[in-house]
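From the shared-data thread, chain only:
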Amino acid sequence: MSIFTSADHLRQAKGADLGTSSTIEMSQARIDQFAVVTNDEQWIHVDTKRAAQGPFGTTIAHGFLTLSLLAPFLSDLIEVQGATSSINYGLNRVRFSATVPSGSALRAQGRILDIVDRTGAVDVVVEVTISVKGSDKPACVAESIIRYTF
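Structure, as tokens:
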């Protein structure tokens, strides 16, 4: 985890590598729960028997489920002390470049792309690359914007 102690410390961190997160398992139970909550119960996600005969040989996670893991991954990658709040301000760019098979172990790497000053706040643009253990290609690359108020 990278720890920053102030807005000034963040401003100096443009380009900084935030390291690698801990692992999160993409269990079938997690996929099933996401499917129910989002009303996206396509067979490729929830029907293990049919998916075993499909193009990936198993069920795969929803792209938006993988993206939703930005929250715990970012909490694992960056801490800003002295901030009175932090909010998910949005995303600049998202790509899903590989599937996430059920049972996969995921980790994320982060890098600060930009720091944007706001009145009473700092927007930190973090590139997060989510990888599946054993895969050469990242599952998701996203630019997340976190607004820290001071």
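The chain is about 25% helix and 40% strand.
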